[in-house]
Amino acid sequence: MDCAVSGGADSTALLVLAVAAGLDVTCWTVNHGLRASSGSEAQLVESTARSLGVPVVVVEALVVDGPDLEQRARDARRAALPGRVLTGHTADDQAETVLLNLLRGAGVPGTAGIGDPVRRPLLALRRIETSGLCEALDMEVVDDPSNVDPRFTRNRIRHEVLPLLADITSRDPVPLLTRHATLAGEATRLLAGLAAEVDPTDVRSVADTPDDLVRIALRQWLIERVTEYSTDRLSGPPPDSASVDRVLQVVRGRVVAAEVAGGHRVCRSGGRLVFEPR
Fold first, then answer.
1. What three-state secondary structure class fits 59?
2. Using CA atoms, how far apart are residues 42 and 188, in angstroms rounded to an integer?
3. Angle (deg, nearest 10), helices 127-136 and 91-103
4. pLDDT tens per residue, range 42-53
5. Are 82 and 2 in contact (CB under 8 A)?
6. What are the residue ranges spanned by the domains of the chain?
7. Composition of the chain by helix, strand, coil, percent to 5
8. β-pair partners for 28
9. Hey, is 274 helix, strand or coil?
10. pLDDT per residue over 98-143, tens digit each?
């Protein structure tokens, strides 16, 4: 079982719990070289893994600070780590992702949250619980300063929006948002089953199909095409609703082509959709 460990409390708790569950674990950590302390942070992960009797793999995937830093670092990790690696995402991460995707216009599928829950076994835990576990075991963890950098939207949601929502409603919004993610995931899987029978690229065959169902089929088709034409499994965020709506206009013959998120293009030729990668 492969575990991605940054050295923070969440991923360290993931490693500890995986070992406690008796799993055959390999620890993976990625050094982006973004801070002077990056090398020592990777060494701390190595030390923690060895103290637990776990083999560790350190991968260098250097990323330069600048625009789209979070996405570029995420892409670098995806390329460096095993495909089915476990991550230490918690319920708090899930709630933040629901809000982020809602603001990006990702629709119901986007508000289903982070993705494959099998790879994220800590989604039922809160950040305070992973920190508490590490403190109880007297485990040293990395305090990543980028987690409070206000230039990243996720951090502002974490430190400003969620506390404000809690203050306005006098209740913790995280359980509500994670519950929404569960329900949205159920709805997405149900609708995906219906959309699987629809070929949105054959524009004549969907002439009488409701727009809502065609949108769902188009979104899945776009995800598959973007992934197919991306390198090293780096596909970026899912297509937003605006991109799907633009492609729907192509399907309906109202426009001949449309650009989608990521700089790709979809056009219509011979009664079929054609995906033109960036």
1. strand
2. 38
3. 150
4. 999 999 999 999
5. yes
6. 2-89+117-146, 197-276
7. 50, 10, 40
8. 4, 57
9. strand
10. 999 999 888 888 899 987 889 999 999 999 999 999 999 999 999 9
Distance CA 30, CA 72 (A): 13
Angle at 246 between CA 225 and CA 69, to 5 degrees: 60
Contact, 82 vs 232, CB < 8 A?
no
CATH of 2-89+117-146, one of 3.40.50.620, 3.30.710.10, 3.30.70.260, 1.10.3720.10: 3.40.50.620
Residue 37 reports pLDDT greater than 90: no
Alpha-carbon distance 206 to 234, whole Å?
Answer: 30
Say how far apart CA 189 and CA 195 lie, in whole Å. 10
Which residues fall within 8 angstroms of residue 175, CB to CB, at 6 or more apart? 91
Per residue in 141-180, pLDDT tens?
999 888 999 999 999 999 999 999 999 999 999 999 999 9
Mean pLDDT value across the chain: 91
Place of tokens 């799993």: 23
**H or E element, residue 180:** helix 173-195
